[in-house]
């Protein structure tokens, strides 16, 4: 921590992994003698760059750009780009580190990376977002490639941003290739990619519930966030007979106890890019708590009574006291759509209470898995039908759950998917690093 100060989220992610690794390190002496853990903790390459662009008023704006290429033992670097004012190198490093294990768990040939910028797309015009994306890609394009590093979206980077980033890559390189995923399905994107993280997170919950002989049917669900992951988590929940009753964004929390109207929410957030509170215009029995009215800053989502919880907004949005409130209200399963949304004390409370808890690196791996299916389609110049993508996603999510669950059993901690997912991911990467020699 002394050599890289101020990277709180990165240390939090590392501690979660290291805490459960000691039993697996004893299973093969080479994990220690070949310095696998020490090498894993240091990114293979970190690219930091200036992004200078001109806003609508003609003023020059300067942002920071990041790409952390963490580990490529299993395949080309893969991981999203986040555009949010909170982005710093500690956040990008935590996300890149998590991505190594998540990608390994999919069983697909994928290395781990993450990138982004402290640029805030909110309140910016279409032209400003385009010019920012063009400037960002002008700096990044020489470091990425279809078999080298393939970024995707994350917070603040959706279809629109991927389009501008891809256009600039093509303009600079002269190549139409699968260098980004999450592209529009009109020009190289995969059907089902937009939905994949949310759908996958629900499939993962379905697997956790099945282990206890339960189904999603009739379950009341708490969802946080109202972006890409949250919307498609809610959509799949409704399709499988469950009832999402909350969602949130940075302006506040929406609660509709008789069940959220997901098509309306998609219209508000995806098509109109409108305020979450405008939902009340159509549903008078719902209510909205503004962020400035939160009690002690606590997200009201976790105070509702429900069966299942799906944190789908951002890191550290569900803390110890929230976990206590959820457990007191009878929560039975938590499936993480976001990356590291639960703090370490919240996770300990869930594990101690013996409820099903699916860590993000397992539960939200559906997005990157379908990104890899997009890479396969691009490489083959092919296009898969939506049903084939969804079927493959569902089977990958079952595979990840089985892998994490069986590994937890093997190491004497049945039901502990934190331990199972971390060890299963670690083994796959560590073995590849050993095979490929020390560098
Ligand atoms: P979006 O930008 O589409 O949505 C993010 C949502 O969370 C928005 O509703 C946003 O509100 C809210 N939010 C974000 N940051 C904050 C904050 N600091 N405080 C309050 N609300 C916040 O992003 P995604 O849905 O793509 O990503 C959500 C999470 O899922 C992230 O943790 C991401 O890393 C993870 N993830 C995403 C994948 C993907 O395929 N997209 C894949 C795997 C994980 P507002 O719009 O008001 O800012």
Automatic annotation (TrEMBL):
<dbReference type="InterPro" id="IPR036291">
    <property type="entry name" value="NAD(P)-bd_dom_sf"/>
</dbReference>
<comment type="similarity">
    <text>Belongs to the Glu/Leu/Phe/Val dehydrogenases family.</text>
</comment>
<keyword id="KW-0560">Oxidoreductase</keyword>
<dbReference type="InterPro" id="IPR006096">
    <property type="entry name" value="Glu/Leu/Phe/Val/Trp_DH_C"/>
</dbReference>
<comment type="function">
    <text>Catalyzes the reversible oxidative deamination of glutamate to alpha-ketoglutarate and ammonia.</text>
</comment>
<dbReference type="InterPro" id="IPR014362">
    <property type="entry name" value="Glu_DH"/>
</dbReference>
<dbReference type="GO" id="GO:0004354">
    <property type="term" value="F:glutamate dehydrogenase (NADP+) activity"/>
</dbReference>
<dbReference type="InterPro" id="IPR033524">
    <property type="entry name" value="Glu/Leu/Phe/Val_DH_AS"/>
</dbReference>
<dbReference type="InterPro" id="IPR006095">
    <property type="entry name" value="Glu/Leu/Phe/Val/Trp_DH"/>
</dbReference>
<dbReference type="Pfam" id="PF02812">
    <property type="entry name" value="ELFV_dehydrog_N"/>
</dbReference>
<dbReference type="InterPro" id="IPR046346">
    <property type="entry name" value="Aminoacid_DH-like_N_sf"/>
</dbReference>
<protein>
    <recommendedName>
        <fullName>Glutamate dehydrogenase</fullName>
    </recommendedName>
</protein>
<dbReference type="Pfam" id="PF00208">
    <property type="entry name" value="ELFV_dehydrog"/>
</dbReference>
<dbReference type="InterPro" id="IPR006097">
    <property type="entry name" value="Glu/Leu/Phe/Val/Trp_DH_dimer"/>
</dbReference>
<dbReference type="InterPro" id="IPR033922">
    <property type="entry name" value="NAD_bind_Glu_DH"/>
</dbReference>
<dbReference type="InterPro" id="IPR050724">
    <property type="entry name" value="Glu_Leu_Phe_Val_DH"/>
</dbReference>
<comment type="subunit">
    <text>Homohexamer.</text>
</comment>
<feature type="domain" description="Glutamate/phenylalanine/leucine/valine/L-tryptophan dehydrogenase C-terminal">
    <location>
        <begin position="190"/>
        <end position="437"/>
    </location>
</feature>
